[in-house]
Amino acid sequence: MKVLYDTILKAKYTGRPNRFVVTLDLNGESVLAHLPNPGRMWELLFTGVTMYIVPHDKPDAKTKYRVVGIERDGVVIMLDTNYSNDVAQHLIENKLIPGWEEWRIVRREYTVKLHGTSSRFDLLLTNDKDDEFLLEVKSCTLFSKTGAMFPDAITE
């Protein structure tokens, strides 16, 4: 799998001034970091929790860092939704999802037209029987051992 980040730093969460910015303690220095996930994340954002950040050198950026992950119960949760499909592809291609060993990726960003409307799916999978499987990849921040939920997204 490709390297997603050259440098990953650990910092402690101290606050959230708005949906897209968090304040962090990075080795005793208070810094701002861009949070690409605007969800409430009440189940994760507690003072002192470890966050994983990467520096970015965009000259016009309001922050010097971007949050890519957070720790919960000793497990790192990826918050950088830009790479969710890459991670899913890696897991599928390397047969790391139990029960999905027969599936392989045909195409990413697959569009299906039904009843005059188009819907885009993240991945189109197939197997040796030529069955097709459309997959939509999501980043869940609220989960348990038996399920994952999207507390900020209403689904009909």
Polypeptide structure, described:
It is a single chain. By secondary structure, the protein is mainly beta. The protein folds into 2 domains: 9-78, Beta Barrel (OB fold (Dihydrolipoamide Acetyltransferase, E2P)), CATH 2.40.50; 99-149. It is 6% helix and 44% strand. It contains 1 helix and 11 strands. It has a 5-stranded mixed β-barrel with strand order 1-2-3-5-4. The model has no long low-confidence stretch (mean pLDDT 88).
By secondary-structure content and strand pairing, the structural class works out as mainly beta
Portion of residues in beta strands equals 35-45%
Shape: elongated
Largest sheet: 5 strands, mixed, barrel
First and last CA, distance: 35 Å
CATH C-level category of the largest domain = Mainly Beta
Strand order of the largest sheet: 1-2-3-5-4
The chain-level mean pLDDT equals 88
Domain module tally: 2
Order of helices and strands: EEEEEEHEEEEE
Write the layout of secondary structure elements.
Elements: E1 9-18, E2 21-26, E3 29-34, E4 50-55, E5 65-72, E6 75-78, H1 84-93, E7 104-114, E8 117-126, E9 132-135, E10 142-143, E11 148-149
Parallel strand pairs: 3-5
Antiparallel strand pairs: 1-2, 1-4, 2-3, 4-5, 5-6, 7-8, 8-9, 10-11
Name its key features:
single chain; OB fold (Dihydrolipoamide Acetyltransferase, E2P); 156 residues; five-stranded mixed beta barrel; 11 strands; three-stranded antiparallel β-sheet; mainly beta; 6% helix
Short description:
The chain is mostly beta strands.
